[in-house]
Structure formats: structure tokens, C-alpha cells
Amino acid sequence: MRGFQLSALSALAAWATTASAAPKAPRGLEHGSCVPGLNGLGVRLSADSEIYCPDAAEFDDMTLRWSALGLPTVRAVVVPATEKDVSETVKYANQHDVPFLAYNGFHGATVTLEKMQNGLSINLAKLAGVKVSADGTTAEIQGGTNSKVVTDSLWAAGKQTVTGTCECVSYMGPALGGGHGWLQGHHGLLADQWVSMNVVLADGSIQTIDNDHELMWAMKGAGHNFGIVTSVTTKVYDIAHSNWAIETFTFSGDQVEAVYTAANTHLLDGGDQPVDVIHWSYWLNNPDADPVNPVIIFYLIQEGVDAIDDKYAQPLRDIGPISDEPLSGTYLNLSAWTGIALDSPPCQKLGTANPRFPIYLDTFDVPAMKEVYDQYAAAVGGDSQFGHSIFMFEAYSMQGVKAVDSASTAFAFRGENVLAAPLIIYQPDGPALDQQVEDLGNQLRETLHKATGRDEYRAYVNYAYGNEDNKNLYGAESWRQCKLQALKKTYDPESKFSFYNPVNV
Ligand SMILES: Cc1cc2nc3c(=O)[nH]c(=O)nc-3n(C[C@H](O)[C@H](O)[C@H](O)COP(=O)(O)OP(=O)(O)OC[C@H]3O[C@@H](n4cnc5c(N)ncnc54)[C@H](O)[C@@H]3O)c2cc1C
Ligand SMILES: *[C@@H]1O[C@H](CO)[C@@H](O)[C@H](O)[C@H]1NC(C)=O
């Protein structure tokens, strides 16, 4: 987006000259030469909006996605400057029978996105900003605001709310699937904080909805399916603790059973993990530590302290890690510590395919963890072409999530304590390789699934590969499926929002 902002400035100068020559109604800035083919969309948009055609210099940058798999294709990028511009763009697309898709942080990675071909990218970058209410209990967040901007803006005002942990994604992308974040143990998911929102529906109409509106249920967990959110009002809180501590352990793969036995006993605690404790682990190659097999990076995080309490850290220290590094700082340090800050590798667009195969777990089944480690190490260890992969296990505290009535949102998986997902990173090289990766991901997920004893595995929609079914993503209960499908028929009868893990009717 950096290139885009610079070029937008120079384009503005060009606009100033043409504007005086042609005293027409305000219209969006047009870059490149698809615009005649777009048949007058520009004249329907506000003066600060922009349209980029494939021959515009900025186009490639503005359509480059984080994961180079299952890619949508774009005939033009529309950058609305107002909510009404979003509405006009959707109406225009409908009139001309052109598919459209919201582009926000560009990190959506489900292969279902490939179904959008030759469509309009509705780039929400100009709908950005955060405003705390006069009484300090809520904030209005514009639909295209980046997650770090939300965190930093609130922090500057002495406030915080539940946001995604990663600095490079949008606020809204995670939230529409429920949304996991550092503060969920206190307050619930991102979407649980919502008071009201403005949304452009499939027919282009603008609706304001609150928690009494039937659509709000669907927005909280299956929201990508129902509209384009232009702004949301969310609860915010005074900063409870500014200090946070982390202890980062590196274990070798042969310690996998000991590590997760300790995590079950001393951290997860039968689903009652202390609200101030979070742990994540990444299985990845670190040739300095082990040239053959992936190591286990274990992040143990605690809020309100400058060093992790011994009662949580000592059982892990006792296993004998390869390394053990404690750090302390503030809430704002967490993303850099866990490798998901703006300048961390997972935030870069490197041209790799980055599919995940998510599954929610109640607990770590130790024999299954051992089995899946061995499968993963055999596939990604050493000089494998999948050698940059990361197997993620995220164990946030859950009190706030479990306190919300499960029936009250489309997000269906409030009982689960661990979000697991292999992220297989590779250079794309055709369908045969993609299939090999999909088979590997399915196998790893199935190993964990078998140990849950459940018929259907449960998967986080925002990590989905795109081969999951609606029960996997939105809950197997028939009432959930019926309710979702009924709302889909009412609000999006022609399935305009059908590219991101669609609700099938
Ligand atoms: C490095 C990394 C870290 C992550 N960390 C977290 C995390 O901490 N917590 C978490 O819950 N998830 C996390 N995720 C997953 C994340 O929720 C999804 O990748 C999400 O799709 C990213 O949204 P985006 O706006 O960046 O991507 P985009 O590709 O721009 O958006 C994804 C989809 O969301 C929809 N969409 C986006 N904005 C809007 C809007 N305003 N209105 C309507 N629809 C919209 C569109 O359908 C779009 O296709 C992470 C992903 C990555 C890659
Ligand atoms: C925390 O972040 C601040 C600001 O970026 C930085 O100066 C400091 O070094 C960080 N602390 C740690 C321990 O990483």
C-alpha cells in the first residue's frame, strides 16, 4: 500500500488540472484505460474515490495478495472514499453483472477466493479511522482500518479492545469470522464487542444494524457472507495492565510429549487456563538448533507482570529447553515478540502459497501430538521444499469467549481451547504440487481430528483452506445451518458474497 499512497498524491495533481478543464459533477480519479469499459462507474463516485485499471502502474501492487494460491482475478480496483461510494459500486456491479469482493488487509487465504474471476476489487483503504466516544465506552472503527492502527489509536487514548494479534491484517477481516486476540480472555471475541455497524448489503443498500437486528447474529462469525461493513461501533475498555511478559522456549522435536503434557497440566488446566496466561507454539525449522527436524518454539505470555510466574514457567524450564529467553515490555510489544509485527516475515508478501488447515482442539492429545509431529517433520524437515512451514498451536485464555451465550452468534466454537493449524509455505509450481500440499494438510489435520473423537472437525473460518464444509466452519448443529441459510436467502439471495468460505444454500 505504500506505493499506492505515493502514487495517489501524484495522481491528485493530475486531477487538479483536468478538474478545472471539465466542469462536470464530482467523480473519482481514474488511473489507466479500462475506465471506458467500466461504463461510467467513476461519475457515480465521490471526488476522493479512485479507480485503477490493469494498465495502471499501481495495479499489480494493489492486487498482490499474501498467499499466492487460489487467487481471484481483478478487472479493476475501486477505492471508495465514502460509504455511499461502496453502495454505488455494489449497485453498479450488480447492474453490469460483475462480481465484486472487498479487499482490506489482503491476507484472506482461502482457495474459495479463486471463484472470483474478472471482478471488481473494492479496496477499503480509504475508509480508515478510529474515534473514541465522548464517554469513553465505545469507539467507531471505519471498515478499512488496519489492526495496528486500531490498537495504537486506542492506546494513545488510554483504551484498548479485542483486536487480532497480527499487525498487518485489517481489524475487520478477523472480526467477521469471530476474531481471536490477546484480550479475548477478558472480553470475548472481536465480534463480541460490537454494539452496532453500518453495512452495505448485496443489493447495494446501506443498513445500520444493532444487536437487536437479526443480521447481527450472522455478522458475528459468518460476516464475510452478508455485506461490506463500512464502520462498526465496538466496546472499548480502559487499559488494565500496560506491562506484559514473555518467555520464549525452544525445544527439540523429541521433547514434544513432555512439552504438551506440561502444557495440559500447568497451563490449559482442563479448559480453565488462567485469564492472564496465553501460550502459542510454532513448529518450524531452525537449522542452528536442529538441522534435520523442526523445533518447537513455545511462547509463554503473561499479563500484568514483568516476569512469568514460576508456577507456569518452571515446568517448561524443567524439561530442558535448547534455549529460554525471557523479555518484558508492554502490550504493544506482543506482536514483534511472536513474529507477527509489520516487519516480521509472516507479514511480507513473498509470492509463496500459504495455505492453512485449521482445527480447534479441547486439549493437547499427547499421543496425537507425537504422531502429527512425526508426520510433519517427515514432510517439512531438513531441505524439504516445504521447509519454511509453521505448524501453529494458539492457546488464548477463554473466559471471555465462554461467557458469551454460544447461541447468540454465528461463531460456533466457544468450547475449544486450542486453535491448531499447519501453515504449509511453498513456491507454487502447478496443480500437482498444490494437490500434494492439500493431501499433506488434510493428513495432519485428520491425525489431530481422530483424537478428538468428534464426527466433524471444527475449523476457524479465517484459517480455512477452502475445502472444509459448512458444518466444519459454522457448526454442525442443524439449527445453526438452518438459521444461516435462511438469513443468506433473505439478505443475499443471489450469493453475491460467495467468494470467502461461502454459506451454501
Ligand atoms: C499473519 C497473519 C496473522 C493473523 N492473525 C490473526 C489473529 O490474530 N486473529 C484472527 O482472528 N485471525 C488472524 N489471522 C487470520 C485473519 O483473520 C484472516 O487472514 C483474514 O481474512 C484477514 O483479513 P484481511 O482484511 O487482512 O484480508 P482480506 O483478504 O482483505 O479480507 C478477507 C476477506 O474478508 C472480507 N472482508 C474484509 N473486510 C471486510 C469488510 N469491511 N466488510 C466485509 N467483508 C470484508 C472479504 O470477504 C475478504 O475476502 C491472521 C492471518 C495472518 C496471515
Ligand atoms: C518494546 O517496544 C518498544 C517500542 O517499539 C521498543 O523500544 C522496545 O525495545 C521493545 N521491548 C522489547 C523487550 O522488545
Automatic annotation (TrEMBL):
In the record, the note on similarity to other proteins reads: Belongs to the oxygen-dependent FAD-linked oxidoreductase family.
InterPro entries referenced in this protein's UniProt entry, alphabetically: FAD-bd_PCMH (IPR016166), FAD-bd_PCMH-like_sf (IPR036318), FAD-bd_PCMH_sub1 (IPR016167), FAD-bd_PCMH_sub2 (IPR016169), FAD-linked_Oxidoreductase (IPR050416), Oxid_FAD_bind_N (IPR006094)
Q: Which keywords annotate this record?
A: FAD, Flavoprotein, Oxidoreductase, Signal
- Species of origin: Emericellopsis atlantica
List, separated by semicolons, the cofactors it needs.
FAD
Which residue positions does the secretion signal occupy? 1-21
Membrane-spanning parts: none
Task: Fetch the PANTHER family from UniProt.
Answer: BINDING OXIDOREDUCTASE, PUTATIVE (AFU_ORTHOLOGUE AFUA_1G17690)-RELATED (PTHR42973), FAD-BINDING PCMH-TYPE DOMAIN-CONTAINING PROTEIN-RELATED (PTHR42973:SF9)
Name this protein carries in UniProt: FAD-binding PCMH-type domain-containing protein
